[in-house]
């Protein structure tokens, strides 16, 4: 059976705002993310349909909270909550939050291409 753990997942993102460790398990990417600072990453999703994340995510908040903002409502998840983030959301992240999240790899990679380009532009 495919499996991973936070200790085994590759550290792929280590920025002032977020640390992310990721591993592929079957057709899904498992992400272990730690938010170091509050951040509204909405501008990074510019260029995706409706300028929102179109990748679905399933996860659990281990500590802190995360908010998914949709066009017509917000969903707030706290430590201990399992969640589903439907396509069409914008995350809002808070310092001290840790999550473990499962995302379809193909959709996640398409989203991260756009996020990566927007981040590179913002840093140049």
From TrEMBL:
It comes from the Bacteria. This is Cupin domain-containing protein.
């Amino acid at each position: 059976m495919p499996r991973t753990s936070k200790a085994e997942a590759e550290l792929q993102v280590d920025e002032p705002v977020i640390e992310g460790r990721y591993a592929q398990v079957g057709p899904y990417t498992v992400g272990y993310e730690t938010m170091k600072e509050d951040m509204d990453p909405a501008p990074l999703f510019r260029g995706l349909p409706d300028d929102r994340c179109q990748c679905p995510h399933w996860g659990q908040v281990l500590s802190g909270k995360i908010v998914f903002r949709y066009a017509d409502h917000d969903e707030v998840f706290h430590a201990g909550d399992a969640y589903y983030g439907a396509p069409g959301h914008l995350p809002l992240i808070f310092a001290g939050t840790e999550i473990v999240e499962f995302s379809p790899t193909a959709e996640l990679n398409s989203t991260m291409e756009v996020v990566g380009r927007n981040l590179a532009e913002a840093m140049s």
